[in-house]
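A protein record pairs a chain with a discrete description of its three-dimensional fold. The following entry can be read in just this way:
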Amino acid sequence: MLRTRSVSLWGYVACLWAIVFAGAHFYWAVGGDVGLSVSAGQQLATTRPLWFVLAGLWGVGLLCLVGALLAWLLAQPRPGGAARRILVYLGWIVGFILTMRGIAVEFLLMTNVTHLDTSVSAGQRFWSLVLWNPWFVVGGLAFGMSALDARRREHSLVLQAAPH
């Protein structure tokens, strides 16, 4: 009997999420400014220190592309075995980090337990609450679902291959 491995829609959703996020960072890295001040803060958006452009914009953009590759690999039917398990674990880790980042920053901004009122503008707070933090949660859930789906697909193949 021929066994086929299906692809994962969730992996492609996570891949698209990462590519869009990479695109925003590359746009900002080459001088684009729409949305940067409400994402990184007015001072960083205005002064653009070299460390910020290299690490915070180009670096994060490249990291997003690595995440896109991970998500794309999770969507594919291969590789299997140990390589698949490593990809699944990485998907879980990325999903957890993104989700927790979105939830934690949302909580900190909503409760003001760190007294960020002096360093976070009203615009930055608003866009963080309604766009950036939910965006991280959506990405985290997409990566988590892609890892779950990849694990389920691999598990179902093991069950299909088992002697009856």
Q: What stands out?
A: The radius of gyration is 19 Å. The first helix runs from residue 9 to 29. The helical segments are 9-29, 36-40, 42-47, 50-75, 81-111, 122-161. The CA atoms of residues 53 and 59 lie 8 Å apart.
